[in-house]
Amino acid sequence: MKNVVKTDQAPGAIGPYSQGIQVGDMYFFSGQIPLVPSTGEMPEGIEAQAHQALKNVKGLLDSQGLSFSNVVKTTVFLDNMDDFTTVNGIYAEYFVEPYPARSAVEVAKLPKGALIEVEVIAKK
């Protein structure tokens, strides 16, 4: 059985998808762009956007009684791979060893002009 994750601790879906889906002890969260949940605004610059995207991930995790230590896989989408080193430093502020598996991909464009999107899979 699958359950829909819905919380105001992260931005609502901006299309026909769920913020996340729980199946058993696994949680599949939709990618988080750096929209501030309370305002819908997006900060400027890769550093501020990386922090906000990860705060949104934290909101999703918190809403389900999870933390970053429950994350087993992340996918980081960047609109410019030149930001990889900067994002790595910020990423390390949220995740600790043992780090989850991760993919980082440069994409042509992200929703709403975001510079970063972070998607996670977690296990309770």
From TrEMBL:
One of its GO terms (cellular component) is cytosol. InterPro entries: RidA, RutC-like_sf, YjgF/YER057c/UK114. It comes from the Bacteria. One of its GO terms (molecular function) is deaminase activity. SUPFAM superfamilies: YjgF-like. PANTHER family: 2-IMINOBUTANOATE/2-IMINOPROPANOATE DEAMINASE RIDA, PROTEIN HMF1-RELATED. Belongs to the RutC family. This is Reactive intermediate/imine deaminase. It comes from Faecalibacillus intestinalis. The lineage of its organism: Bacteria, Bacillati, Bacillota, Erysipelotrichia, Erysipelotrichales.
